[in-house]
Structure formats: C-alpha cells, structure tokens
Amino acid sequence: MKTELEKHLLTRSYDDQERIEELLETRYSLTGSQRPTLVLLPTGHDETPKTKSLLHRDDTIDDEQFNKRKINTRLEVREFLKSTINSQKKVIKKVQEHKRSKNPGDSAGKPFNVVKVLNHYKIPLFEDFMPMRSLWEKYAQNLVFPDVKSPESKIPAKQAMLSKLASAEYTGCFMRVLESRNKNFVGVEGIVAYDTQYSFILCLPRDEDPDAPPSKQVGGLRIIPKRYTLFSFDIPLPNTTESKEHTYVSFTLIGSRIEYRSVDRSTKKFKNHNVDDIL
Amino acid sequence: MTCDLNLLWPKSNYDALTPSEITNIKNLIITSYNLGYYNVVINFEVSESLKLPINEPSKLNPIKIKEIIDISKFPDLKVFTRLTVIVNDSSKLINLNKYQNYFDLIAIKPQTEKSLQNSIINLNIDLISIPLDTKLNFYIKHKIVGKALEKGIKFEICYGPLISSTSTLTRKLMISNIVQLIRATRSNGLIISSGSKNPINLRSFHNIMNFFQTLGIKLNHINKFDDNAEKALINGRLRINSYKQTVMIDDNVNLYDNSKDEENNVMANNYKKRLNDEDIGQRKKLHS
Fold first, then answer.
1. Cα–Cα distance between A70 and A103 in angstroms, integer?
2. In angstroms, what CA-CA distances link A126 with A172, B92, B191, B198?
C-alpha cells in the first residue's frame, strides 16, 4: 500500500484505474519507459574566449623550450635527490632486516651484497666519484701551490693561498665535517657531489665490514647544511721527485660564511662579521 | 678553559727589557696558569703618538714568547699577544690595519666619546678597553655600545686597579664606571681580565665572579664572560689564520690555536703535515 498516495494524486489526471496501476508499476521497475534514475548529460558551454590583456604575448617556440628546460633541470635534480635518499633508506632497512634474520653468534651466514642492491636502486657509488676527486686534487694543487715542486720546498704565504681557496670550486673535493652544531654530522666524510647555496651534497664511502652500522655499510648521498658547520680538507703537496713521501696541508672551510652558490662565490667580496654564528 | 686577556707588558715602547722585568712577566704567566687561566694574552699598550716600525715587520711585535717562557713545560698553556692603542683622535689610526697580522688581538683604549664612536665604525678591532680607573669625561651610550656588540667587539673590564690601587677614590670611580658599562652593554659582550703588572694582584676566576655578583650581574651572564673571551680570541686569530673568515688554514677544532705560528705570522711552512703509515693505509683504502 505504499503507492496509496500516488494513486490518489494520479486520479486527478487519469480516470482509468487500470492506466494508473500500469503507470505506477512501470514507475518502480528497472525496465520500462519510466526510470527511477536521472541521467545527467553534458550541456553545451560558452565557446567565446576571454579577452586577453593588452600586454599579453603568446609564447614563442623558443620561450616554451626555455621554460621547459629550466623547469626540467631543477626539478630533475630535486627529484633525483629525493628518490635517491628515499631508496637509500630502503636499502638501510634491508640491511637491518638481513642482520636481524641472522642468528646471533652465527657469523658464517651469507653476507648481504650491498653493491648489488645499490646498483638496482641506481644509488651513486663512492667509486664513481674517484676520478672527480683526483681531478680536483690536481686543480687545487695548481691553484694553491703553483711553484711547489717537492714536499721540502717552501709553500706560499698564508693569505695568498687562502684568498684563492675562498673563491675556488669544491665539487670533487674529499671533505670531512670537523665540527658542527648538529653533532650527528661530526666525522662524516665524503666527496662533494654538488655544491648548493646552503648545503654540500656529499657522497659517502661504504664500510665493507659486515658488523658496521647499516647506514655506514650503505654510504650514498648525504646533504650537509653549511650553516654552523666546519668542513676540513687536505691538499697534498705536488711531488715531482722520486721520493715517496706524502705531505699535505689541511684547510678548514667555515660553512656559515660561504653560503653562496659557487658561481656567486667566485666574484664575491667577503667581509669579517661577528663570530657568534660560526659554531 | 678560562682566558685572561690582559697581562701588561712592562714597557710601553720598543726598549729592550731588563732581566728582572723578564722574570717578572714570566712569573705573571705562571701565576695566572696556576690560577686556572690557560689562555693568557700579553698586552702591549702604546699611545697613538708612538711610531711603530711599519717598514720592519719583524720588529713590530716586541713580545717574543719563545724568549720569555718555554710553553712546552706547561700543558695546555697558550700565550697570545695583544696590541692596545690609547686613542684620543681616531683619525690618526689609519695605519692600524697594517699591523693587524702581527698581533693576535687588537684593542683600543678610547679616551673620548668621539674616538670610541669612530673606532667602532671604522676600525677592525676585537676589544675595547674603556679606562675605568679614571674619571670618564663622557657618558657611555647604549646606542654606540650596541653597534659594537653587533659587530662582535667585546668590552673589557680590568680588575687590576681595584686590587692594586691604594686610594679609595680609584676604587670608587672604578665601581661606578663598571656599573655604567654594565648598564650600557646590558651585561652582554663583557670580558673580565686582570690588567696588572704584578703577579700578586692576580685573582682566580671564581674570586672575581663573586665580586661581580655583588655588582648585580646575573649568574648566567657571568658564565658568558668566558665564552666572550674565547670569541674575542677566535675573532683575532681568524683575522690572521683565515681569509675574511671563509677558509682557514689547518684542521683544528680549537679555532684559536697558535702552536704552529712562525715568526711573523705570514708564512705557513709549519702547517705542512706528513702522513704516517696508518693514514696512508686508510687513504689507499679510500682510493681503491
């Protein structure tokens, strides 16, 4: 008797009782001419385009290319770093799992092949940067010790060496974090893969020892902020003589004072400031 | 690690010291070392009219630490040198930048308000030592002092005259001046140093702190005095050892270490390091 109300309403328009019954039956069935659903169809829209401002200029092909390229390089580097660091975390987890699955005291278990996994995730290896490091060492020797032939000879005056290093390029340099406000970074060492405005991106070496902490076994990229951090590095003295002595001079970069891109740093005039923010 | 930034050099010109004066300065260093001051600074105080031998750089610094004391006998002891110029008219001080490399610290002692103001703006200095034991003929303004603190220049209070002076007037002046300085600096950027020529006038750090607590400085500001002294030393040493505080020579966490210095602070041959076998092994591992 659900349709009692509808029946009464329909009697206003229809005299025939059978016709009313039929209409109500089709109304509440899925087949038939009347449907209980409403189908929405797209309506036509306004085709006239908006009026453009007087200063508007359509992008030429060159513009499009340029914008595309600019966005792509920047985004790609960021994406690459993000994905690499994420996948590094995954590898670290895998190493941890492997460690946990091994019985304690049972050292004979199969060691975890880190390099294979790193290659699978396309994480840059420390060895990949070795050629860059030897290139940087040659560059630094030419820059800082232009006239030094053997480890015994005198090296140039302090300020002469330091002023050259202040505007030098550091990609490829083997650095270690000497001191930092963030104590987690102290002692980290690796080759500079990229020198951004506020950070150095280092590529860390792997520790082959299976008992080392998982993060050290994996190595890979690490972003170290420059602020409140001291970075130190060594430059070996050029040795043209036969003697196999290794002599070097070490330097320290004060991170808070070199917060510039390397391009800007090469022409920058530096100034002394309050030393409160060095460490 | 406490620092005493002011042990007075007996002469205020370039005359050679007599043997008794040398023993006196040696005693001064050893006494302060025994009182717990491991970083001591010998202060060469000159008036602005004294002509400094700019043409002979090796003679610019009369303080030859190696001739006075053998540092290796005292573990952790570091002796630095400091130049203090008494300034009346700061326009005469244009040459100050030339001998910056020969002293670890550069300080000024302003006699007038104008010289204080000018030297804060124009000169590259680490310390300001206001003559607190005399009647100051100007009022120390917070605005000027604040500018100095912003640049990292510290203010020095010498407790020497408080102990050594025989007249009550000096002590009275001293205390009122110290209170003035504390007011102007708002207890920030202050350094306490001895400033005495006689070992008997040296006091330990806590002894002096006790006195300053009675003057109304809060304890947490007093604890900063030592940090400030260290910062002044870092500031001074970085001027010699770094290029505009960007790159520094040597990899020592102790930024004001001076154990590898040479005669005139310019050459760097002592900074050469020879790798030992262990290091070479480690390096080869990283190279392979």
1. 52
2. 11, 57, 48, 60
Q: Does A181 touch chain B (CB under 8 A)?
A: no
Nearest CA in chain B to A157: B267
Is any Cβ of chain B less than 8 angstroms from the Cβ of A171? Answer: no
Per-residue model confidence as pLDDT tens digits over A150-198: 777 777 778 888 888 888 888 888 888 988 888 888 888 889 988 888 8
Q: Give the C-alpha separation, B220 to B223, whole Å.
A: 5
Residue of A154, A252, A265, A269 to mutate, testing the B interface (most B Cβ within 10 Å of its Cβ):
A252
- Cβ–Cβ under 8 Å, residues B101 and B265: yes
- A248 to chain B nearest CA, in Å? 5
Average pLDDT over residues A40-68: 79
CA A175 to CA B38: how far, in whole Å?
A: 31
A246 and B275 within 8 Å at the Cβ level: the answer is yes
Between A and B, how many CB-CB pairs are < 8 A? 125
Residue type, B201: N
Note the ipTM here. Answer: 0.80
Q: Is the separation of the CB atoms in A262 and A195 below 8 Å?
A: yes
Domain A123-277 has CATH 3.30.470.20: no
Which of B164, B171, B160 shows the shortest CA–CA distance to B7? Answer: B160
Give CATH 2.30.30.210 domain extents, chain A.
Answer: 123-277
Amino acid at position A163, single letter:
S
Given the structure tokens 């602020």, which residue do they identify? A227
A147 close to B (CB below 8 A): no
